[in-house]
Amino acid sequence: MSVPQEAMQEFLDKPSLLQRLKTFDWIWAALVVLGAAFVFMRYHTAMDVYEKSFLVLAVPGLVGLGWHWRSIEPYTLAVTLISLLGIWLYHGDYANAEKVFGLKYMFSSQSAIMWMSALFVLATLFYFAGLFGNSEFLEKTGSGLTWTALVMGLSGLMIRWYESYLVDPEFGHIPVSNLYEVFILFCVITGLLYLFYEQRYRNRTLGGFVLLIISAAVAFLLWYSFDRDAHKIQPLVPALKSYWMKIHVPANFIGYGAFALAAMVSVAYLIKDAAVKRAPDGWTAKRLPSLDMLDDLTYKAIALGFAFFTIATILGAMWAAEAWGGYWSWDPKETWALIVWLNYAAWLHLRFTKGWRGTTMAWWAIIGLFVTLFAFLGVNMFLSGLHSYGEL
Amino acid sequence: MMTNARSTSSRLFHFLGSMNLAITLLVLLAIASVIGTILQQNKPYTDYEVKFGSFWFEIYRMLGLYDVYSAIWFLVILAFLILSITVCVIRYTPGILRELRHYRESAKEKSLLAMKHHAVLTTNLPNPDIQAIAQQALKSEKFRFRIANNDSHTTLAAMSGAGNRWGYWFTHLGMIVLLLGGLLDSRLPLMLAEWQGKLKPETRNIPASEVPQISRLGPQSFAYRGSVDVPEGKRANVIFLNVRDGYLVQRLPFEVEVKDFRVEHYSTGQPKSFESDIVIYDPDHKEPISTTISVNHPMIYKGTAIYQASFGDGGSEIDMRLRPFNVQYANQDVKGNIFQNYTLKASNANYQVELKDFRIFNINPVTDEKGKVHQKNMGPSLIFRLRNAAGEAIEYTNYMAPVEIEGRPYFISGVRTSPADPQRFLHIPADSNSSVDLFFNYLRKLQDNAAVRKAVTNMTQDSMKDSELSNPAMQEQVIDSMIRLTEMFASSGFEGIQQDLAQRFPKEKVEEASKAFMKVLQAALRAVYMDTLAEQGKTELTDKDWLFFDDSLAAIANLPFYGSPWYVQMTNFKHIQASGLQMTRSPGQNIVYLGSIMLTIGVFLLFYIARRRLWILIKPRDDGQSDVILAGTTNRNQKDFDHYFQGLQSAFQRALTARGA
Ligand code: HEM
Fold it and tell me: Looking at this predicted complex, what is its ipTM?
């Protein structure tokens, strides 16, 4: 039997992942493996079994992520280079943060975070200018600025990690332990999630909306840093000295980031919906992406957020079981995590099984962000409980 | 009758498994959970009564708002959720199984054409070739399929993404497993026993050994979570389970001794770790088991996990010197233990001294000379209450060592009448030997009329020698009023003098008189102060001495509001700490974790595996060609499927024509 193989192969026998990889993908993967091997050789005596397994699992995790989303490859390379440069500039002395030019103005964690903040705000302006001016060039600049901000943000966190050991080897910890640090994490994760979907949908018009919430976070960060000296590196309280923290907090922030993304896309949805109703051929109705796409993106973001929030809450319960002696204590932070989770569970059921769409769901996603915000900030500000670190 | 009953139960079944109920329950649970985070739970009931007034207090109590998560209505919501998910799974499972098994190869041409995703292609290939192409396509796309041959057409019915259905089961069964696991560890058995009247929480503050049987639980309890403070060197064989505003005493199957409790500090003074060396004594083991636990590193023994939860004082021994503010009485030296009460005699009455707490470190924000705020360790402090015969108490926090404020050292004592109030502070200046002696010497002299007379007489004679006022009668009058004013000041401060003036002078004269009297008083106070220092051989007074003088006056002026007949000075202490241990027995924990893992896997399967169906219907036409109908459905991500289906369609198109050409 002679089946025309060639023709079918074009589509049906899609090249497998391995066949699609280019030389650069392999070089990058090799660098990831080498980097991990170097870290292992150099530091294995200082690592416990959990840290070793994280390191080992991080290799396939990162390689898989990079191969799946290629932009991660240059991104991680840039972050690595800048982080190493910053570390090198320190020459093992924390006082150099104020003395060495490159640190003082660029690569000390505090400076890098300032750059990140400025770039995010600038990117927001460019995205909006591109949207209003209907200029692809401005929008592309917005994307470029966002990528640069993300490089500075993540590098800043990495360098801060190193700095915490420089201040005092006993202080050393991953920078996800207080409000200042997690706000940076929030900006970075939300930015990355947005850029992923920007590339996926080949549409840059939502950049301004999403970066608006990042800019709000940046404003908080700046206030918090200048008014409260929050950027000062402090030692960990005993309850936070746990390997659970390292995975619980980032998982939580993928959730928060995704929910924030969903809410901002919903804002765009409401604007578009109103515009279409008022003037279907109007400028706004034409510029913003289709309602279908906005709805689809909102759903995907909430699903992603829900999945990671589920993991984060479970990890939190496991940590609580180890630190406080019970996996569930109805502590206000825990309870609010549950409230956020239940809220989105209800949203997903309505959307998926009852097929609800439209403005109601968009409003709900926006309200969902306020509920999330309360769980993330409000609880620390207004309620007391076991999670009373990171207070304002 | 029969049909009626069946329809009712089936309607109930339908209701329980309905999406509307599910969503209502999820939202309801979220809202109910909010209450317990806004209203602080399980505080002493008197606090609530003060806050809400007795009417609302009672209503909230009946609604269970002080312990929302154990309130009946809350448990009913949870029970309904379990029920609802269970019914939901039961209801959907047959359909899902059917769906997994059935390829729907009998789908009619018409229904395929009615699908959103469909395409009709035409080819001149023979039927077997078309089938071969279709089969290969489906295989390479990882579809499972069946072929049905009919008289008029051949159908390939295919599906993929069964993982999505597993996702449904995992998610919802996981949720049931999780909730049931949580139920195992819950207080439900205790609540049932309480409703039956077999158990009653104790609310009095009495030693564990005196707690009556009805508030006790035996060592065979299935699950528990409670805590106990064990002083260093002591053992515990019970823990306390907090129930609303009371507690239950839970007997442990073993005994725990705390050998030592330690706090390790960072270089900045902040705590770095809390740890206890503990020893477990169990009749089943000959040898006691020793280990160290710390925060985040519990010990698990026979299914009971022992956590380092908190720490506090374990009855430290305190040496105190009580220095009366009234000179007629002598100092008293007293020894005591934290948590004990002592009855002591003061000038006017008996007081109960209740030693509440001892703290060895007090890291507080302090303002330095430049106005900058630093964290500073203020050293050991003693917290005690002084209760008078009427039962009214004032709480004091006394620091053992002098604390430097704006460059000058003070002995500080914080005062408040209720724990809710902010503290007010008495600052007694410390002398060059870092003691309160100079202050008390001065105070004693002020209260000693003879000493005051001597001091002011010398002074007035000195200053009036060459003035025209050197009239003995006049002098005598000034000296008398100085003594009277000093006495008044030493017993009731500036405030007392003002009151006295207000009584003796008409309103419009008070200000003028007060100015004059203050001048006289100041002169007298200075004279006595200089006399006090002269006794110590100090005649040339420096700025520092005068600052001490000002501080002394400020302190004396505040004494009438201090409320204690003594200054209680801690002279020595032996620190005994207590380690706060939390002990948990939670047999349901691993079940909860199992449910959590199922839930997580399930959620990812549901979100990231799409269930897809494809049909390829091959229908020979009269003209020798064939129609190939391609149709597909998916349960999620319609947009992605649009794209996918289009690609599939064009690949087919090409395959069918490539051969045909
Ligand atoms: C806390 C409880 C629950 C959780 C966490 C939960 C979670 C989920 C999730 C994450 C999905 C996937 C939604 C999507 O794909 O967008 C889902 C789907 C679904 N849930 Fe639930 N659910 C819960 C309770 C219930 C209850 C009580 C019912 C019964 C009415 C129910 C019925 C369904 C159904 C029918 C689906 C659709 C499955 C499909 O066709 O793919 N769920 N659930």
Answer: 0.92
